[in-house]
């Protein structure tokens, strides 16, 4: 494939890349990287005192070896050496992000909300996760080959101005997941303390730690061991339901597990832009797919088991009525004080899931334009954490439930975006030989106008709305399955956008040449 990317690969020493090479020019991604002071002078920074403060702040970040590079493309000569552990680190990264309490809580929904037996829930959850993780793994391979972040890649698909809509929707998804993680973490810490620690304080603790560090928990092995005897492996919560309702519930739970993984696609390339251009795409793909699939499978099966146990264990059922976090704490109770310690570790596992969207959000804010790009990324990272924290505190009783439904709606557009991305790459860039000119990342005159992508995006949205099935709305086509519907929004949105994009893009290229 012709990526039209320089194959030069002079690996920088192991010390901070930005400290040695500076940030690259905002106007020309292919030129050598000037020092930070020069880069800011070449762009359009704020005037006066604000400009001086920002420059001083970025110099301070570099002095303490804090990554200062934001949305700028990472040139081939600025990449790190790829050690033998490089691809193992990719898998561990995704495991650390995905092996956490919210995925466990997602597993609750199979038996409790959709009335599916244990085995049905496990099969649907595992295969839904695999399908959802596959496009994420493919998007991740574009990090090393392009050196561009995921939302910058979107500029090559949708053009300069339509890409801003995608960035805003991505920020909503990322900050929404941060909010849900914060609320669940606060609930767990409050339940461990028997209510003596308020959920508000728990939320603040989780968010404060997230600002500094990422972690993940091996403690789920202990949870599955101590709670496994209460899993209802052979019960059938769907007994008495019609076959149409069962089919719709199966489809909806499969779609929910798929959506939980597919939304990682919006930041999949961000974490691998420092990998060399010649990094094996196959290994990046397999490492990402394995990390996401293994972690989600383990956490989902534990969550499904806990959910099934609420039908046979009154204490678990009562705990679930309090909160999802309380059910996890109740499952650890046979271990006494050690169980409380394990519950805290599970709460802290949420930090790993919060760090990734917080990191990506800081970059995505800068992708909104030159003015946003001039603000140091650490400011946007902080804002991306503070906003969900405030929302979580003020609406901790119901906001998480609202956002769960809202984020399911947001997840539909990711499928649409993936359809457009794949067709642009496979048909127009690869098959027709147009290739990618990654150095054009910040030149709006060389990027597509985005008319074809925008129209395809809207058409896909219409299909998703007609076929969606959520608690608060069931689309007319989804309602044909049963009275509760069956969620087909991801698949129909993907298909409709995929049908209309190629002819529209062909017309756009014929008329405008880009």
TrEMBL record:
GO cellular component, one term: plasma membrane
Biological processes annotated in GO: nucleobase transport
Localization per record: Membrane
Key word Transmembrane present: yes
Ranges annotated as biased composition (Polar residues): 1-14
Protein species of origin: Septoria linicola
Membrane spanning residue stretches: 92-117, 123-144, 165-185, 197-220, 284-306, 338-357, 378-400, 406-428, 449-473, 488-507
Keywords (A to Z) from UniProt: Membrane, Phosphoprotein, Transmembrane, Transmembrane helix, Transport
Molecular function per GO: transmembrane transporter activity
Record membrane topology: Multi-pass membrane protein
Principal subcellular localisation of the protein: membrane
Protein name: Purine-cytosine permease, vitamin B6 transporter Tpn1
Positions of region (Disordered): 1-50
Family membership noted in the UniProt record: Belongs to the purine-cytosine permease (2.A.39) family.
A Pfam family the protein falls into: Transp_cyt_pur
